[in-house]
């Protein structure tokens, strides 16, 4: 398997895109991240990440229809690609594998 | 510019922020976030790479919008180009077709046609007629010759034209076109055999090779024909022949068409005359071994015939053999100084030049009109320049526009050519089609597109792109005098070429009419001729007696040579006191009692042959020029000899042309002979009773010549056919000449319209100051008329040279009178005036209030 190059923030954005299904665009992704992680991010940071993910081939995008909202500007919707999904799975498997290898009691409990 | 979706996201957030934090905070956040977008990915690309498609789409839109805005102008511009392209395309196809004639044989590089060059003192002449014995001995004596075949296009030199002979099977009797060929013939030439093999096709004395058409005609199918027998009637002989081969019908690109070929050896064997080396009456084709240099072989052939003809060394007579590539025979069939020089190729070359000229005229037109109309686009250029277009971008834009138009014009011209081809084929007797599946043709079309695009597009593109934006936006662009001069010189160039074409067309037309209507010394109206063959040879006298009694027939007589194109001529006449160093060529022919009457000849001195004087059977009739050439003091009664016959001259008749008018007048000597076993029967029908006459003749023919198909020709038609290529050229040049002048007029019209627009205000002011409509008309036209005069001055000398060169191929030709040139020039001038007339009148008649009120 190809080496996955996915930063922590990129991983979150990619997961959010997957969560939002067919309603993933700049503002909705921004709001979802704020809701889920409590981080307040600038919209440009979201776009920069999406742009990077698209370049890597993990998401693809298409232009939505024009509407009277947003001053008539169209939205760009993002969806996760099969490659993106595979990368997420790979990361998760690696984590689980590592979790399972930690001996009992060596890991401090969640609350400490 | 920020890309769309990011703008949208920002706006959406801005609304949210307004709701949450109020307008001031929202505005601050908006600016902050917008600034954070200052990253490369967030902006639209400025390089042209990404939207070249859009650009081209924009060009196309622009082109069509512009076309629609100036409908008249666009129509003039494009139709000129379409016409020019369609013409050139058709000529190109015709030239291709001509070049293909006889050049389709797979062994074409090894096939040669033998010609014979004769030296009589300082006279040299040459033609293709060679001894019938030649092919076989050439193959035996020279290792370079791989195959050789004799070929008899005509059975006798006195019978010119195609040979038709009768075939009979059951109740089917047809005359077919064909000849004799040697046994190597099908091994040499690429005529595919449907039945039989090349080596056995012409090997049997009583074998015959026939075409698919003829096989189907007689036997229903190729399979049935092969090996079957049919009756073959030739001259006095009638015999059964069996089909030893069936060949595919000849392609139209074979210059010589035949439906059957009979065995050559059998034919030579049965005619003692043909076994004599001095008999020059057939053609010889040879196939050289690969790598043989024909010039080397020609050198080896020097003296070959002299030896066999017993010509003494040192005598002033020499006979040499020459080799001409078989593929060249069609286009290079004329001999000069004993070598093939030109012929039809001259027509092909002139047509090719005409195609290029028409194309150049059309391109120049297109260029001129585009440049003229570009003035209206000054604002567009200005706006584009201000918006950041540089010169290169503009040049690319205008060039692509030209290319789009040129591509459109080419497609339309292909359609036009497709529509025009059937009529063109009818005119030229060809079977040309558009070779749309031929890759090299498509390649040439694309090449034409590129050339036309570059030639027609460069000048307007360069001109337009130089406009200074400030001036252009103000609408103050005026061509400098240099650019206007360029436009004018283009008009001069176009008109010079068109006038050249007009004058040459007129000369060709006049010459063709002159030939057709020239008094050739005999009356060829309502004369029919049929071949003397079969039982007619011995039944001739009875046939004549019977036919003369039938309704509709005025005279029946005979001539040993086909009267309108007598092929046999030479120094056959001897008389007392003849200068041995001065050869006088005579055309000998044997005729009957009524020939002079039938042919409408006038007896100038003495009398006609008559059955009241039995001694006339040894006498001669000589034409006036013949008597003059002989230089006899008292020609009447003087004894002359022709071949073996000796007798007195009993009459002198007027001169007549017994050959096409390409040849000069040759004296004719006639003797009386009704017993020859070959020749032509001539029949004059009574005026207005042609149909009756032919029916009578058919009846008499079936009685006196059973087993032969009745076929006849009109002498007048046959005479006209001698000038077929001239007639075709005359028609073609008049069509293409008209089109070229039409295109030139379109160009002039465009220029006039443009000039009228440019000078609207000037004319308005002139009118206000008291100029009359007429004065303005004259003023406006004067400039153009001057151009036409310059064009005439350039065209006339060129036209004189070209016409004179063409006329040289006729012994009888019209004078190149000054009025032909004047007429051509006047015609062009008139057309030019008519073309600019309406524009000039409109300019003159315009109300100055309208033209001046804009400022």
Give the termini distance of chain A in whole angstroms: 37 Å
Summarize the amount of helix of chain A as a percent range. 40-55%
Q: Give the terminus-to-terminus CA distance of chain B.
A: 41 Å
Portion of residues within helices of chain B: 40-55%
Quick synopsis:
The complex is a heterodimer of chains A (112) and B (855). Helix content of chain A is 53%, strand content 9%.
How would you explain this protein's 3D organization?
The complex is a heterodimer of chains A (112) and B (855). Chain A is mainly alpha-helical. Chain A has helices at residues 8-20, 26-37, 43-56, 82-101; strands spanning 59-63, 76-80. In chain A, 53% of the residues lie in helices and 9% in strands. In chain A, helix 1 (8-20) crosses helix 2 (26-37) and helix 1 crosses helix 3 (43-56). Chain A is elongated and about 60 Å long. Chain B has 855 residues and is of the alpha+beta class. Chain B has five domains: 4-44; 52-101 and 343-477, no CATH class; 111-330, no CATH class; 494-518 and 721-855, no CATH class; 527-720, no CATH class. The interface between A and B is medium-sized, with 19 and 18 residues.
Structure keywords:
heterodimer, A: 112 residues, mainly alpha, Arc Repressor Mutant, subunit A, 4 helices, elongated, B: 855 residues, alpha+beta, 5 domains, seven-stranded mixed beta sheet
Describe the SSE topology.
The complex is a heterodimer of chains A (112) and B (855).
Chain A: H1 8-20, H2 26-37, H3 43-56, E1 59-63, E2 76-80, H4 82-101
Helix pairs in contact in A: 1-2, 1-3
Chain B: H1 4-21, H2 23-36, H3 52-69, H4 71-100, E1 111-120, E2 123-127, E3 130-131, H5 134-141, E4 145-152, E5 164-169, E6 172-181, H6 185-188, E7 193-195, E8 207-211, H7 212-219, H8 222-225, E9 229-234, E10 237-247, E11 260-263, H9 264-269, E12 280-288, H10 294-301, H11 304-308, E13 317-325, E14 335-336, E15 339-340, H12 344-373, H13 378-386, H14 391-428, H15 439-465, H16 469-474, H17 481-517, E16 527-531, H18 536-549, E17 553-559, E18 573-575, E19 587-591, H19 595-599, E20 603-606, E21 620-623, H20 624-630, E22 639-642, E23 645-653, E24 668-672, E25 680-685, H21 690-704, E26 713-714, H22 715-721, H23 724-758, H24 760-768, H25 773-807, H26 818-845, H27 848-852
Parallel strand pairs in B: 6-11, 8-10, 19-24, 21-23
Antiparallel strand pairs in B: 1-2, 1-12, 1-13, 3-12, 4-6, 4-12, 5-6, 5-9, 7-10, 8-11, 9-10, 14-15, 16-25, 16-26, 17-25, 18-22, 20-23, 21-24, 22-23
